[in-house]
Amino acid sequence: MVLICHQDDPVDSEGIAAWLACDFSLAGMVLLRDEPGSLFRKLRREYRRVGWLRLLDVILFRIFYLLGQAQNDARWVQFEVQALRTRYPADLSQVPRLSAHNPNEVEVREFITGLQPDFTIARCKYILQPAIFKIPRYGSYALHPGICPLYRNAHGCFWALADRDLAHVGMTLLRIDEGIDTGPIYLQASYAFDELRESHVVIQHRVVLENLDTISRKLRAIARDSARPFALTGTKSVNRGQPWFTAWLRWKRHARGASA
C-alpha cells in the first residue's frame, strides 16, 4: 500500500497513514508540498470557472472561515489525529517517504514503482496521470469526500449540504481513471453528521474516518476479486468548485430552520 497525501494535512499524513500501516502494510508515502504561487493559480482557475463575482464569493468564504472556524477545526484535527494514532499504534518513522510538489513527477513514478504496491490510496487535490495510477497491482483509489458522481471535486460534502441534498452527504471509494472522480465506484458511505455544530471540514473528514473498517473490508474484497463496482446509470454528474460564502449562509439558514 502506498499513500499519496498533502504533508500539511495531519489527518491524512498521520491518521490515515497509521490506519493503513495497521490494517494493511504501508510500503511508502508520497507527501505533497505546495508549490510557490499555488494559491494564485487556484484563484485563477476558479475565476475561469465562475467569473469575478463568484470569485469574490469564494474569497469572502475563505476569509470568513479563517477568522471564524479555522481555529476550532484545528483543535478538532489535533484531537482526532491523536485518537487515530491511539487506535492505530503504527510506527510511521520506518515508512519510506518521498516529498514532492506534484504526484505526477518522474521521481514519484520511480518511487512508487520501486515499492511494487498492491494499492495506492490518493488523498490529494491533483489529477493523477496514467503513468502513476496504473502502477499498483490492484489499481489506485480515492477516498473522496463526496458522493460521486453527484458531487465531484474536493468539496462534495459542502455542496450537498448547501443544496440541501442531505441524503448525499458522504464519501466515495472509487478507482482512479483519467477523469476527475469519474472512475468505478466500490463504496458510498456516510455517518450521523451534525450540520449545526460541525463545520464542512469536520464533516468531510468524518465521512471517511467513521467508515475506515468498511473501507478496509472493501479493499480486501477488491484484492480477492470478489467486489464489483456499482452499476450507476442515468445519474447526473456535477464537478463543483470552491465553497461560496453565500452558499454557506444558505446552508446554515436552512439547517437552523430545519432544527427549529
Beta-strand percentage?
5-15%
Please give the count of helices: 9
Shape: globular
Spatial arrangement of strands, main beta sheet = 3-2-1-4-5-6-7
State the distance separating the first and last CA atoms. 47 Å
Spans with pLDDT under 50 lasting ≥5 residues? none
Write the layout of secondary structure elements.
Layout: E1 2-6, H1 10-23, E2 28-32, H2 38-68, H3 70-87, E3 97-100, H4 106-115, E4 120-123, H5 130-133, E5 140-144, H6 156-162, E6 171-175, E7 185-189, H7 200-209, H8 212-223, H9 245-259
Parallel strand pairs: 1-2, 1-4, 2-3, 4-5
Antiparallel strand pairs: 5-6, 6-7
Helix pairs in contact: 1-3, 6-7, 6-9
Q: Would you kindly provide a brief summary of this structure?
A:
The protein has 260 residues and is an alpha/beta fold. The chain is built from nine helices and seven strands.
Account of the protein in words:
This protein is α/β, with parallel strands linked by helices and 260 residues long. The protein is built from 9 helices and 7 strands; from the N terminus they run E-H-E-H-H-E-H-E-H-E-H-E-E-H-H-H. The protein has helices spanning 10-23, 38-68, 70-87, 106-115, 130-133, 156-162, 200-209, 212-223, 245-259, and strands at residues 2-6, 28-32, 97-100, 120-123, 140-144, 171-175, 185-189. The protein has a 7-stranded mixed beta sheet, sandwiched between helices. Strand 4, helix 5 (130-133) and strand 5 (140-144) form a beta-alpha-beta unit. The radius of gyration is 18 Å and the shape is globular.
